[in-house]
Specification:
The protein has 157 residues and is mostly helical. Helix content is 58%, strand content 3%. A hairpin with a 5-residue loop joins strand 1 and strand 2. Helix 3 packs across helix 4 and helix 3 packs across helix 5. It is globular. It starts with a strand and ends with a helix.
Amino acid sequence: MVSRKKSGTRKKAPITGPPTVEELAGGTGAGYDADLRCVVEHFLGLTQEEARVAIETRGILLADDFGYMADAGLRYYLPAAFEYLRSDESKNALEFCLFFLGSLRSVIRRTHSRPAPDIVALVKEIAGYCASCPEKFDPSFGPAWSCADTIADILRQ
């Protein structure tokens, strides 16, 4: 759960288990739409290990969900996605990489609810990792690598 201090900074809460609907998608009240329903349908109740397996098996289907998750959901599930990216199983996973980085860019660019600093730092770490080994995801890597602009945009934020 994310709380605000009087100074306006956010405090990172400990991760104790899978996030609730509120923590994952901000609840089901006003603004709960098809995108948030997909986040809840795909991730609610999954442990980090289960999410890692789901990302490996259904990657591109889940990549977009990260762009709609609330901070607590991102804090809990981004490490699982990062673990997948660092694994051998993500070799040639260009589509997942593209969609996932695009979702992370939308998280970083949020104007209505800027993500907490620890989430921004993790997103930048993930983007930096992807930038460090583009040939892993795209064997035809060249100067116009398809993820390069997205990564650069994330790292500038």
